[in-house]
Design a protein that fits this description.
About 15% of the residues lie in helices and about 45% in strands. It is α+β, with helices and mostly antiparallel strands. The chain has a twelve-stranded mixed sheet with strand order 7-8-9-10-11-1-2-3-4-5-6-12. Strands 13, 14, 15, 16, 17, 18, 19, 20 and 21 form a nine-stranded antiparallel sheet that branches. The two termini are about 35 Å apart. Keywords: Signal.
Amino acid sequence: MKLSKNAMTVLSFTIGACVFISTAFADMALGSGYDRFKGSIKNTAAQMEKGLNNYTIEALYTLKDNDQTLLQASLFNKIDNEKQVFESSGKIQKSNGETSTEYSYSDQKLSIWKSGTEDKYYVTEYPDDLNRKIGNRFTNPFNEKGAPEVEKIVDAIVGNLRDYVQAEERPEGGRVYSGSLSEAQVPAVVNAVSSFGIKQFISSQSRADKNSKLPDIDSDVFVKKISGTAVENKAGLLENVTGDVFLSGKDKNGVQHDLSLNVVLKLSDIGNTKITKPDLTGANVEKVSHSSGFSSKHVGKYKNNIVLEKNGKFVKIGERILEITSVENNKVTGKYYETVKPGFESDYPDKYNFNFEYNPDQSKAMSFFTYTNSKGEQENGQLHPSSSGKIYLDLNIEILDENSYRSNASHPYFDGEFDRVFEE
């Protein structure tokens, strides 16, 4: 089972923000401080993937506009690689005040998850003969494809910042890295990256949440200040990273906005993390098959809208259609296609249209189907029942190993949740 979309949003954005903050002032005043700090980051990531038996990691970010909280998200993960038990909980408070929570628990015999505002736990039990393997829930980003090239770019960016941060030895071992950059000290490349990043983030959040109150920052975006600290323990692991980024920009109406982003990452309870299976007595529980979870009741047509933002408004430009044509002996057969209204072809040029057969292998922890995309390339997909009358479709999946995968956006506006069509 993978992390939910909200949880992944929290984690990926938080890590991205921390990388931005750390690269902005990573070259330490302590001689080889930059190499020491980068080595500490690499060591921590490597140990989290393979090395630490169990640990707890927390992430929190808060985005404010003129001291008013626009978005706050937190993620709390307990990971026990030795016992193959994992627990994750997340919370997102949106700009309109709406709050949603996520929860998941997984061991070799059981998976539990609860998503969004729905007051229901979905539970999957696995038979003893399945020999289910979960694998590690953390992937070292420095081992990802293209990581060496990214590292070289980071090295080049931070090369001129070596005098702005201090590295202090701790009496108990390890170091504390700290520092800040004022508006005048922020390099032009950092301003350019931050301008692009904040615009993309606000745009993506607005697409995901039509009631979003995030300001539509349009011009004159620049970094006013960056500050942060990183605490390394005597084992060379980063236990606490805190960063603040202060930006300024104008919306389409010329109104000035002062944005502040606070990011906190904590690594704790190393070797002492305890995970207890949740007690669902009295809770609203729905059992989900460990195979596909589909039955004949799922045969039918499902749709969702293709929505783009144009001229400051949300516009429906087409539809995605998922048809389940048969479910027999656990095999799901169907087709998927997209339609776009005349005049919007250039906004959505790569329409998907394919047939598929999804036949989960019960002896494996994960199963996928293959399909051909609009470019004639073979890709992997997955689908599963969501809440009543809904199906969730995942496309453009990258299989990392037999126990883990990564879902890449098949299109920047793709929405994987489909609603049953009851009336034409």
